[in-house]
Specification:
The protein has 236 residues and is α/β, with parallel strands linked by helices. It is built from five helices and ten strands. The strands form two sheets. The protein has an eight-stranded mixed β-sheet, covered by helices on one side. Strands 7-8 form a two-stranded antiparallel ribbon. Helix 1 packs across helix 5. It binds zinc ion (ZN).
Length: 236
């Protein structure tokens, strides 16, 4: 596993810089390719800090990543982050703009990444100040919910799970929501088979170190369980 130096990704004609770090498996053709996205809402710092932790972990070459190619995007909405706002500097919620012909430079850039890389899995990290616990949204491949369940269990050693039957206006079962908003960062509509797609949310009012630890534990668990499920599927 080798970590590339950060790519200086300045979006042409916008001056907006979206950093990207790639951690590669030892044998290039060998890996599961995952995209890990944080900070599409500029005021949700836990995901960004968690991605920095995960990058440090990847740089230590853990055996757990020998067959993973990870593409980290720690700050997907840099102008919103600078302003401390959910929306970007144009006042738009970027996580409602995907695959609808948006001309926002951040969305155009990320859509091109998603089209080119054709990830096996997408993990998007968020925080919610209306929630007292961790929860998540699943879509895409059916196994997404089978990864979110153990991820929430792992996160619960740091922060509780949101057990409410209704979260953010959606029906939820033990912190797992199978609906979602239109226009969120997700795989291209034409990508088949559908990749794993999980949105993981921490309670934004909890202590930051706990949010970061819960997120890191959740992502590591998703990666470990994904490999297990792939191995199981291959033996069917
Ligand atoms: Zn968010």
């Amino acid at each position: 596993m080798v970590t590339d130096s950060p790519l200086e990704t300045v979006i042409p004609s916008s001056g907006i810089y979206i950093p990207k770090i790639i951690s590669r498996p030892l044998r290039p053709a060998d890996g599961f390719k995952m995209g890990i996205f944080a900070g599409i809402h500029g005021d949700e710092e836990a995901g960004t800090l968690a991605v920095h932790e995960l990058i440090k972990w990847a740089e230590s070459k853990p055996a757990a990543l020998h067959d993973y190619e990870l593409h980290f995007y720690p700050v997907c909405n840099p102008t919103g982050r600078n302003l401390g706002t959910r929306h970007n500097h144009s006042g738009l919620d970027l996580n409602r703009e995907f695959w609808s012909g948006s001309t926002e430079p951040e969305v155009v850039f990320l859509e091109a990444e998603l089209r080119r890389e054709r990830f096996d899995g997408l993990i998007a990290l968020h925080s919610d100040d209306d929630s007292d616990g961790c929860y998540g949204f699943v879509r895409g491949a059916l196994l997404s919910e089978h990864l979110l369940e153990p991820a929430l269990a792992a996160a619960s050693s740091h922060l509780p799970r949101n057990e409410l039957p209704l979260i953010d206006g959606f029906l939820a079962a033990r912190g797992i929501i199978k609906e979602g908003y239109d226009g969120i960062l997700c795989a291209p509509p034409g990508q088949h088979p559908r990749p794993l797609e999980i949105v993981f949310e921490t309670p934004a009012l909890a202590l930051m170190p706990q949010q970061v630890a819960a997120t890191v534990a959740a992502v590591k668990t998703m990666l470990a369980e994904y490999r297990e499920l792939q191995a199981f599927a291959a033996n069917l």
